[in-house]
C-alpha cells in the first residue's frame, strides 16, 4: 500500500514546489516586468497620458542605454575572463596546497564579504587618499596625492574590475577544484600521459577542455550577474558611462518625471536582452551532450 | 628479452611496496599477474609505465633502458581498472586520442579508428559520448584507444574487475583475439585465478612486493602458496557433493 502511495506523495510534493516557485518566484517578477512595460509605454504612472512610444524613441535616440550596456558588458567580460584565467592558474598550480583545510578556508572567506564592503575596501586601498597612495607618498614615489593614478571612479573601471576579481576568483577556484575531483581529472591526466601526451597536450586537450566545458554555464551566468551588479559600480564607477543597473536606478530616481518612464524603458530592454541570453544559454544542443 | 625488469624497489612512508622485483617477458606474450590487494601490483605497473619513479632498479625495453624516461616517451600504455574515458570527447575522438597526439593526418586517423571500431564491434557507436555506452562497451573503447597507438607494452590493471561475468567472458575472448591480431605484449593483473590462466602465456604470483614468474602453468598449479589447489579442491568437493546428492535421489 505504502509503495502505491509514494509516487502520489512525490507528485503532490513536487506540485506544491512548482506552485510555490510560481507564486514566489515567477509571479512577482512577471508582475514587475508588466508594470515596467506599461510604464515605459506611458500607460501607467504619475504622468501617464495614454499609449506612447516617445520614451522608447528617446532612449534609443540618445544611445545612453546601448553605451551603458556595451560598457557593462566590457567590464563584466574582462572581469570574468581574468577571473577564469587566474582561478584556473591558481587551481592547477596549487591544487595540492588547496587540499589543506586552512588554505581552503582562506579561499572561502572572500565569498562571505558583501560587494559593498569589497567596494569600500578598494576605495580605502586605491583612492588618491588611500593606503597605497600614502605608502607611495611616504616612500617618495609621489610628491602629492594628486600624482597617484586614478584607480577608482576611473575611465578604465580598474577599481570595479579589481573588486569583481576579488569577489569571483575564489568562487571559480572552488568550482574548478570541485570539477577537478568529480571528473577524475587527475586520473585522466595520468591516462593521457600514458597514451603519449606531453604536459602541454595534457593541459590543452584534457584538463582545460573538461574544466571549461563543465563550468561554462556557470561562467556565463556569472557574466550576466556582473552585467547587472549595482553596489560595486555605484561606489567605484565613473559619472558617465555608467554600468546598466546604476543607470536604471539613476533614471528612476530623477526629479524630472518624464525621465522615469525612460528608466523603465532601459530596465525592460535590459531584461529582454538578458532573458534572450539566458534562453540561448540553456537551450539543449544536439552536438554538445557533455554538460 | 623484450621487457626486462631488474631489481625494482619502491617505498612509501618507509614501507616497502615493491621489493627486489625482477622478471622478463618475451615479445608478443602476455604475463598474467595474480596477487592479493595491496601486494604492490599497481605500483609495479606504474613504475614500469613511468607514472611512478622507482627508488632503485632498472627497466629495459627491447634492450634499451627506459627507467628514467617520461611516460610519454616509453610507448607503454597503462590501463586503469575502470573504463576511464575522456568525458568531453566522442567515442571516435576517444579512440583517436593517441593518434591525434602524434599529429597523423585525418584520413589515416579515420581509417584506423574505423578498422579498430570494427574489431571492437563498436562501429555504430562512434558518434556517441562515453556516458551513452554500457560498462563493457566503455572498456572496449578503452582497449581500442590503447591498442591503436601500437604500444610496445600494454599494462592492464584488473581491466575486467568491474564487469559482470557474461561481459567479462566476452571481453576475455576479445582481448585474446586483439593480442593476436595486433601482436601485443602485455602484463595482465587480475584477482581471478581462471582469468589469469586463460589470459596469460605465463603466470606470475605477487606477494609482499615481490613477483615470482612460473616457468610453466603446471609449476603455478603445483605451488601451494598460490591457493590454486585450494580452489581446485573446493570445486572438486562441490562436484562430489552434487554427485552424491544425485546418487541419493536416484536410489530413492
From TrEMBL, chain A:
The keyword Cell membrane applies. Coiled coil: none annotated. It is a multi-pass membrane protein. Its main location: membrane. Keywords: Cell membrane, Membrane, Transmembrane, Transmembrane helix, Transport. Residues 65-281 form the ABC transmembrane type-1 domain. GO terms for cellular component: plasma membrane. The keyword Nucleotide-binding does not apply. GO terms for biological process: transmembrane transport. InterPro entries: MetI-like, MetI-like_sf. Gene3D superfamilies: MetI-like. It is found in: Cell membrane. Belongs to the binding-protein-dependent transport system permease family. CysTW subfamily. This is Putative spermidine/putrescine transport system permease protein. It comes from Leeuwenhoekiella aequorea.
TrEMBL record, chain B:
GO terms for molecular function: ABC-type ferric iron transporter activity; ATP binding; ATP hydrolysis activity. CDD domains: ABC_Carb_Solutes_like (cd03259). It holds the Pfam family ABC_tran. GO terms for cellular component: membrane. Keywords: ATP-binding, Cell membrane, Ion transport, Iron, Iron transport, Membrane, Nucleotide-binding, Transport. GO terms for biological process: quaternary ammonium group transport. InterPro entries: AAA+_ATPase, ABC_SmlMolc_Importer, ABC_transporter-like_ATP-bd, ABC_transporter-like_CS, ABC_transpr_FbpC, P-loop_NTPase. Residues 3-233 form the ABC transporter domain. It comes from the Bacteria. PANTHER family: SPERMIDINE/PUTRESCINE IMPORT ATP-BINDING PROTEIN POTA, SPERMIDINE_PUTRESCINE IMPORT ATP-BINDING PROTEIN POTA. This is ABC transporter family protein. It comes from Leeuwenhoekiella aequorea.
